[in-house]
Specification:
The structure is a single chain. The chain is of the alpha+beta class and 347 residues long. 55% of the residues lie in helices and 7% in strands. Strands 4-3-6-5 form a 4-stranded antiparallel β-sheet. The chain has a two-stranded antiparallel sheet with strand order 1-2.
Length: 347
């Protein structure tokens, strides 16, 4: 019925449908029929001995995913990032409670991984919590489709994702699985720790000893793999991650900030710029000067050491690394408080 009340409701629906058609019109062709995908299939056949017909079958079922391009593209108007807003997404009651339960459930495994690879238990817990809320949000994209979209329809990073698509196919062959079965994030990251396929092949471990690596269904494999990833990227056992910085009035900060996240400054150099650890300590090793900006508020200043830098090998962002560090510390504090309370109740 064409009434004034129905038209406003129908118009957005019709418009959305048209936009969807326009968005996918250029991608009606299956990936298997596109020259760049055919070239990739030929390369995989020649380089790794894959069956061409089998790969063609896979790429006939891979689908262009418009939302993948949307989510991975940088914002047109990024504005100023907010540390407090970013932090609030991760260091919050739901995630801390989930982390406490995860740590309790897998206490022995987390301890074993920490001892074997030299990575603190709270860092392992922090990474899995930031990545997937301990397995609650591992992604619902078919990995082949997501990576095909990025490899063949996102020129900006096509080379990187062609490599990840190659790694996915190799990984599936090694794990005796159908490549079409893997589900993950819009960027093709997999399992509780959100490893890209190349990271699965290079760093993941069968930590539960069942003869296969499964980062989605085996928390033990995820825990061990995170710890090994940190170790392989240079984790220094027993060394600090980050310490709050005390900044003197009039300190010359721009040269320190320009260095970004690379740990390049020793204690004497930092002191010369008017910066010291707030706790008065003098840790061995060099640090990066980390500014965490929140619009309308004073920035937080931290010193990020080698282990802070290692966390950024997982995701190159000081916001990310600090969230992992602080979530791990928050869950550790909650765990300690729960243990103290339990002991008191047993008296």
């Amino acid at each position: 019925m064409n009434t004034p009340t129905t038209r406003p409701r129908l118009a957005p629906i019709l418009l959305a449908g048209l936009l969807s058609l326009f968005a996918t019109a250029g991608h009606a062709e299956r990936y298997a029929d596109r020259p760049e995908a055919q070239q990739f299939i030929d390369e995989m056949t020649q380089k790794h001995g894959f069956d061409k017909d089998a790969l063609t079958y896979i790429f006939r079922r891979a689908e262009f995913q418009p939302s993948v391009i949307k989510y991975i593209s940088p914002p047109k108007d990024p504005g100023v990032r907010s540390w407090q807003r970013y932090r609030g997404r991760f260091i919050e009651p739901v995630r801390i409670k989930a982390g406490l339960a995860f740590w309790k459930r897998h206490e022995a495994t987390i301890k074993a991984a920490s001892e074997k690879y030299g990575v603190p238990e709270e860092i392992i817990v922090g990474i899995i919590g930031v990545e997937t809320i301990y397995g609650r949000n591992t992604g619902n994209y078919q990995a082949v489709s997501a990576l095909s979209t990025l490899a063949f329809d996102y020129p900006r990073r096509a080379e990187l994702f062609r490599g990840e698509l190659e790694a996915l196919l190799l990984m599936a062959r090694e794990q005796h699985r159908d490549p079409l079965d893997y589900q993950g994030s819009y960027a093709g990251a997999l399992g509780l720790p959100q490893f890209l396929p190349s990271s699965v092949r290079n760093y993941a471990v069968d930590f539960d000893g069942d003869g296969q690596i499964d980062l989605l269904n085996s928390p033990a494999d995820a825990i061990g793999s995170v710890a090994r990833y940190m170790q392989m990227h240079g984790w220094e056992t027993g060394a600090p991650v980050a310490i709050r910085a005390n900044v003197e009035p009039g300190a010359n900060l721009p040269p320190l900030i320009a260095n970004d996240i690379n740990p390049a400054f020793d204690n004497a150099t930092l002191a010369g710029y008017g910066v010291k650890p707030v706790d008065g300590s003098t840790p061995a090793g060099k640090a990066a000067f980390v500014e965490l900006v929140t619009p309308g508020e004073d920035s937080e200043y931290w010193l990020g050491y080698q282990n802070f830098y290692v966390i950024t090998r997982y995701n190159r962002s000081s916001f990310y690394a600090m969230s992992v560090f602080q979530l791990g510390e928050a869950v550790k504090a909650a765990r300690t408080a729960a243990q103290v309370s339990q002991r008191q109740n047993q008296r």
